[in-house]
Design brief:
With 350 residues, the protein is an alpha/beta fold. Helices cover 56% and strands 7% of the residues. It is built from 16 helices and five strands. A five-stranded parallel sheet has the order 2-3-4-1-5, covered by helices on one side. α5 links the parallel β2 and β3. α8 crosses α10. The two termini are 49 Å apart.
């Protein structure tokens, strides 16, 4: 990657980070908050690469030395980015920049106090070749309370060269004392049109598939890419459509067989439920407008039209509510068979 120019969306967050660089007011601790796949690590790496860019550093120094009569002494924000060609940028793009570190942990399930003590010790060592020494901490929500407290003193009194970037899926998982010492930057969903363009331009995804992935991802570009590039995408889609188009015909025994089949792939059940939601929103939209232009499952317009004719507005809403309830129950580890049976029966009846 080559700095901020390769980041899709998140304009407000990037503007904040660029302003910090341009003004020379880089904080020594940041917390990027967003769901998995939202782009936290991508933004952190772009920020780190730009901070360490030798070309940009020289430009900023020259601007401060001779700002000119009508110049504020800072470069325009569009100029604040990694050049991609200096030694530091080339190292960053191959993950070999010695003063940019993505911190690694002993376990995947939690970040221990020992993990953080190792970081605290490393912070005391001055940068190898750059102005800053930057630490990126993925999955910061996994830090134990003891680990967060171990990090606290470093956040309170960091060396002037240290920049620590925490990446977390949850603000609530962080201690208030940590939050108070970080610049907190929440990531918002990316505009659907931008996600669609990204999938088509960067990954060569065909329009129909891109539309489904965009609706499925709800502004989470990483999630959209994961689905679009999955080898199982079409089997997942076909499986969902099979249920949606035949559930009315099946009796209870058919539903039980389907539940058992789905039980072998619980890891994808949430994805299937999301596809169910997209389908029934299409049915609701078509029923209200009789216009096929706005629906996502355009290739199933015949089935969408038939479902819209046979279902009432209240019935469609009951199904959408049942899908949401099923996701909540599965997350809470309620019986998988019971949850899916209740959902499929609601779909069948409505």
């Amino acid at each position: 990657m080559s700095g901020f120019r390769d980041v899709t969306g998140h304009e407000r967050t990037i503007e904040h980070l660029k302003n910090a660089i341009a003004s020379g007011r880089v904080s020594q601790a940041y917390l990027l908050v967003g769901d998995k796949g939202m782009g936290k690590k991508t933004i952190a790496q772009a920020f780190a690469q730009t901070l360490q860019c030798e070309t940009l550093e020289r430009m900023l120094e020259q601007e401060q030395e001779s700002p000119g009569e009508k110049n504020s002494g800072t470069l325009p924000l569009q100029s604040i980015d990694a050049c991609g060609t200096c030694k530091s940028c080339r190292q960053a793009e191959t993950n070999n920049q010695p003063d940019i570190m993505v911190w690694r942990y002993q376990k995947e399930t939690s970040i221990s106090v020992d993990d953080i003590r190792a970081l605290v010790s490393d912070v005391q060592i001055k940068p190898y070749a750059s102005r800053y020494k930057i630490y990126i901490l993925p999955d910061a929500q996994k830090m134990t309370r003891e680990a967060q407290n171990a990090l606290l003193k470093t956040l309170e009194e960091p060396p002037e060269y240290a920049v620590i970037i925490l990446l977390s899926t949850s603000r609530d998982a962080m201690l208030e004392t940590i939050l108070s010492r970080c610049v907190v930057l929440p990531l918002r969903p990316v505009d659907a049109a931008k996600v669609r363009s990204y999938l088509m331009d960067r990954h060569g995804v065909e329009p129909y598939k891109a539309d489904i992935c965009v609706a499925f991802a709800q502004g989470n570009i990483g999630r959209a890419v994961a689905l679009a590039t999955s080898e199982n995408f079409y089997s997942l889609l076909e499986r969902a459509i099979q249920v949606l188009t035949h559930v009315k015909e099946w009796d209870v025994s058919d539903i039980v067989v389907l539940i058992r089949d789905m039980d072998r792939g619980k890891d994808v059940v949430n994805d299937i439920l999301d596809l169910f939601s997209i389908w029934y929103r299409d049915v609701l939209l078509f029923k209200a407008t009789r216009d096929a232009d706005g629906i996502i499952f355009r290739e199933q317009i015949v089935q969408i039209r038939e479902a819209a004719q046979k279902s009432s507005y209240d019935g469609i809403q009951r199904i959408l509510d049942a899908i949401r309830t099923a996701k909540i129950r599965l997350k809470a580890n309620v019986s998988f068979d019971l949850t899916m049976e209740l959902l499929l029966l609601t779909m069948k009846e409505n």
